[in-house]
Amino acid sequence: MQTFNRNEGRLPVGEFSEEEREKRKKFEVSIFGTRGSKTDGEKKAVDIAGSLATKIVGNWHKIKTGGYNTGIMEAASKAGHEEALRLGCDELIPEGITIGDVLGKATEYAKITEEDTLLERLDNLEDTDAMVVLHGTSGTITELLTSIVDSTIKRMKNVKNDEFAQRPIVIADSSLRHVDLLDALKKLDPGMIGMFEHVYFVSSSNNQEAGEIVDEINFIIESYYRKSEGEELSDEDKVEIAKFDLKKFFDAKNEFTEGAGI
After folding, report:
1. Count of CB atoms within 10 A of residue 159's CB?
2. Which residues contact 103 (CB under 8 A, 6 or more apart)?
3. Are 27 and 167 spatial neighbours (Cβ–Cβ below 8 Å)?
4. Backbone phi, then psi, for 149, in 5-degree steps?
5. Mean confidence (pLDDT) of the chain
6. How many whole angstroms separate alpha carbon 28 and alpha carbon 97?
7. Phi, psi of 69 (to 5 degrees)
């Protein structure tokens, strides 16, 4: 299997063998986030979405988005589409999941799948091997919570050979809205901490470059792809992934709030 270096960016067209490309095309990543592109948080999230889509598709994985021509959906679809054309692989053109024209016009940069209901749309969007949740409001938060609950239920049921039970859910939101909500829920019911297995938080503060954030998100995605192919991660990679564990972030955040870090 091709060794992946998190700092190399997208890989050249000929980097993978044909056999490896076929394996990689089966690993799908959904990208969720804001429909807007006006505030600083929205603009940064849109930039991250485009760069991330380029890198994911450049590594021969397919992406799914919400399918409309605004915000993160448009940015990820457009960048992913351009990268698929660069690679000469129509199979890697992003898939956009919509509900007809209910939420607006579909993007021209994705293969559109129209679902009949919002629930069916959400089920389709979450039917992937990895999820990235960027800056967003109520709709994005709903997608995040549903994804966490879905993965948790599958782990509780010990669903055999269910690759989605241990998929990574990566949060990157400079507003901290998503993690603050999850932290509040955890405080109401400490037992919820078990739901945050395979959930990661990648800081996307204003003083961080979008490229650095994208590299960290992509490192987690690639690590899980390698695990799905039966590769044993190095101790160094395991330590690196653990740095993004959401539970560790909560511990550090709460210690600081209580005064230990002041």
Report:
1. 12
2. 35, 66, 68
3. no
4. -65, -45
5. 85
6. 14
7. -95, 40
Coil/strand/helix, residue 196: helix
Longest Cα separation, the chain: 55
The two structure tokens encoding residue 232: 């044993």
Q: What is the pLDDT of residues 13-51, one digit of tens each?
A: 457 899 999 999 999 999 999 888 888 888 989 999 999
How many C-beta atoms surround the C-beta of residue 139 within 10 A?
Answer: 16
Edge-first strand order for the sheet with 62-65 is 111-114, 95-98, 62-65, 28-32, 130-133, 169-171, 199-201
Task: Identify the CA nearest to 148 among candidates 182, 120, 108.
Answer: 182
3-class state of residue 46 by DSSP: helix
Residue 219 CB neighbours (<10 A) = 20
- Distance (Å, whole) CA 199 – CA 126: 14
First CA to last CA distance, the chain: 46
C-alpha distances (whole Å) from 236 to each of 80, 223, 243, 246 are 30, 12, 11, 19
Helix (H) or strand (E) holding 49, with range, is helix 40-58
What does CATH list as the number for 14-257?
Answer: 3.40.50.450
Query: What ranges do the domains of the chain cover?
Result: 14-257
